[in-house]
Each structure stands twice: as C-alpha cells, then as structure tokens.
Amino acid sequence: MQVLCMHVKMKSFLLIFFVVTLFQFVVPTYTAADKAEEPSATISYTLWLNPDITKQESLNITAPNGTSFYEVMQLAASLNPNFAFQAREYPGMGHYIFKLAGQEEDLVNNIYWMIFKLTDLPDPTNPPSDDFLTPVGVDSIFINDKDIYLFWYKYVIFE
Ligand code: B12
Fold first, then answer.
1. From the CA atom positions of the chain, what is the Rg in Å?
2. Residue 93 CB–ligand 1 contact under 6 Å
3. In what order do the strands lie in the sheet with 111-118?
4. Is the shortest distance between the CB of 132 and ligand 1 below 6 Å?
5. Atom 50 of ligand 1, nearest CA residue
6. Residue-wise pLDDT tens for the chain (159 aa)?
7. Which of 19, 76, 137, 154 fits as disulfide partner to 83, beta carbons 3.0 to 4.6 Å?
8. Could you name the CATH architecture of 40-155?
9. Residue ranges per domain, the chain?
C-alpha cells in the first residue's frame, strides 16, 4: 500500500515537473527587471528657432533603441512645452512638421523646419551643410544611442 502511494506521488511529481518545464518554454516570462535592461538610447535634440540662430533650445532624451523620431518629439513635447509641434500626415511618408516651438513655416519667405542628423553637437558659429539633412521624415528616423538631431527653422532656396 505504502509502495503504491509512493509510486502515485512520484508520478504526480514528475507530471507537475514536466508541465512547469514545458510552460517555461512556451510562455517566456517578461519581468520588470527584463524591461529595465531593454537597451536604451540617449540622444541630443536641439531646436534652432530662427534662420540666424540667435535662439536655441536643447534636450537630452532617453528612449528604447529604435524609437522613431516622431515618438521622441512627442516625448520632448511632454517634457518641455517649447518642444510642442504640429504635423500633417502624408500617406507613405508619415508626418511633415509645419509648426514647432510656436514657429510656423513661412511659405512666403521660404522658411521651413528642416531636420539634420549630426556627428557633433550643433554649433551656431558653424552651422551644418545640407549634407547633414536626413534623407527621410520623422517617422522613418529611428534613434540609436548618442545620436544628435537638430531641427532648424531655416531658409530654403529652391533651385
Ligand atoms: C518641395 C519639397 C519640400 C519642401 C516642402 C514645402 C513646400 N512648400 O514646398 C521643403 C523644402 C520644406 C521640404 C522639407 C523636407 N523634405 Co521634402 N521634398 C520636396 C519635394 C522636392 C517636392 C514635394 C512637392 O512639392 N510635391 C508636389 C506636391 C503637389 O505634392 P504634395 O504631396 O502636396 O507635396 C507636399 C509633400 O511632399 C510635403 N513634403 C515635402 N517634403 C516632405 C517630407 C516628408 C517626410 C513628408 C511627410 C512630407 C513632405 O510638402 C509638399 C508641399 O506641400 C520632394 C521630392 C519630390 N520630387 O517629390 C521632397 C521630399 C518629399 N522631401 C523629402 C524629405 C526627406 C524632406 C525632409 C524630411 C528633409 C529634412 N531632412 O528636413 C523635410 C521635411 C521635414 C519636416 N518639416 O517634417 C523626401 C522624402 C523621403 C521620404 N520617403 O521620407 C523627398 C521625397 C525628397 C527626397 N527624395 O529625398 N521638402
């Protein structure tokens, strides 16, 4: 009787062990600790508020690696109202920023918000050339650690 009882206990133990092991493989646990270890990126985000660069504003933003710049802009706006913006959506290309930091694009004088990805922190005494303009809009820019972005309210010369 005692042997039979032991046998049943052993069987149930093995069954529970098997189910627990299987469950761990099928449903990986995602704990807060894992989340904290998610690779994050700290980027520098600067606004040059006029074409002559006499006013500027800067923020460092930390977000998960691969976050879109559009989401970074939303985060920046929630942290600092000077980074508030307005955008129009274009199918296939995403958001186009027409107003930022209270400054709306000026179609008469051709002043627009243009975004640059730089290799060094922006320096008003040495503004970046158009070579540093991003080739895509804010929804298609995905951040990596130590990236440096500049949105410049800039004169654009159409050729
Ligand atoms: C003119 C133009 C601009 C003008 C638009 C203002 C104006 N009043 O004209 C200015 C110089 C401001 C501009 C800015 C930018 N542009 Co642009 N632009 C063009 C261009 C040469 C013609 C668009 C056009 O007039 N089409 C004809 C009209 C009738 O159609 P439309 O749909 O109404 O056009 C509007 C949209 O295209 C919008 N628009 C213009 N550029 C961009 C960029 C993005 C990402 C979005 C969502 C919308 C958008 O403005 C146009 C006028 O209202 C195109 C190239 C092309 N040949 O299409 C590039 C083009 C659309 N631009 C491009 C880019 C990358 C940008 C910038 C992101 C560059 C930068 N690094 O700053 C910025 C936008 C930044 C922001 N504020 O969000 C890329 C988009 C690539 C992509 N798939 O994302 C294109 C395709 C050029 C290229 N091949 O690189 N642009």
1. 26
2. yes
3. 56-64, 40-48, 148-155, 111-118
4. no
5. 96
6. 455 445 556 566 555 555 555 444 444 434 434 445 668 999 999 999 999 999 999 999 999 999 999 999 999 999 999 999 999 999 999 999 999 999 999 999 999 999 999 999 999 999 999 999 999 999 999 999 999 999 999 999 998
7. 76
8. Beta Complex (2.170)
9. 2-35, 40-155
